[in-house]
Amino acid sequence: MQARALNPEENFIESEPYYEITGDEIAIFEAAYQNKLPVLLKGPTGCGKTRFMEYMAWRLKRPLITVSCHDDLTASDLVGRFLVKGGETVWVDGPLARSVRAGAICYLDEIVEARKDTMVVIHPLADDRRALPMEKLGTLLEANQEFCLAISYNPGYQSVLKDLKQSTRQRFVALEFDYPTQELERKIIASESGIAPDLAEKLVKFAHMTRNLKGSGLEEGASTRLLVHAGKLIKSGVSPVSACRSAIAQAITDDSEMLAAVQELSSSLF
Ligand code: ADP
């Protein structure tokens, strides 16, 4: 499975992903791509950033390599490393090096989660140099014409440690993402889960109630992703109140009082 995820040739998106346009994001991304400028997608989790990247990769006919960054992710995980295979030491490119060579779109999701040394390798790629330093090989890999770097970042998690430095952010064209408008979100939920529009609308209302609790006990409100999950459970026969509890309330909080409060909100709607 890992080999598949790393092989750009196998990461072309063949059929058009379902994506509802929310503003001028497509035109801006295309212009950035043509000008070889890297792109930063800002916004809360579950609001459509990954889906947008899939859509753009399909539209631009480039393979998409997505790396979900985590606090153990090092520069070597992205660039590559020497591995011993059958008694021989061989170099194995990491996902970023493969994307740079193959002219893929490399999407580093939640970049601030990664270890600090990863920024060192993306900086020369994200400016005019467009080259990846391969320290262990002692070489600088020049990016293929078609290569595109995109990163995502959730500004909602306010923490000095999880902040994107100016030296990094000022290299990127930034696209701001947020939860879709009420009308659009209803359409997305109905389309993704197959539930009736009136139920989808209630889920959107419920989401707005939880989003209003952000900062007063909740770190984040319910994302579009969670609403789609709840919609799918409902479509499979789970009652709306149970679906809201399992797919939404339990996903956004562990606090028992908050859980009860969120639960009450869904019972008032369904
Ligand atoms: P993010 O990458 O921002 O965490 P995703 O792109 O994974 O979030 O979005 C979560 C889900 O929400 C998607 O799988 C899709 O079902 C739905 N979604 C959100 N925004 C859109 C959109 N604009 N068009 C279509 N589906 C969307």
Automatic annotation (TrEMBL):
ATPase dynein-related AAA domain span: 38-172
Segments forming domain CbbQ/NirQ/NorQ C-terminal: 185-267
Annotated coiled-coil segments of the chain: none
Domain of life: Bacteria
Segments crossing the lipid bilayer: none
Keywords, comma-separated and alphabetical: ATP-binding, Nucleotide-binding
GO molecular function: ATP binding; ATP hydrolysis activity
UniProt keyword ATP-binding present: yes
InterPro entries (UniProt xref): ATPase_dyneun-rel_AAA, CbbQ/NirQ/NorQ/GpvN, CbbQ_C, P-loop_NTPase
Similarity section: Belongs to the CbbQ/NirQ/NorQ/GpvN family.
Name listed for the protein in its UniProt record: Nitric oxide reductase NorQ protein
Organism field: Sulfurirhabdus autotrophica
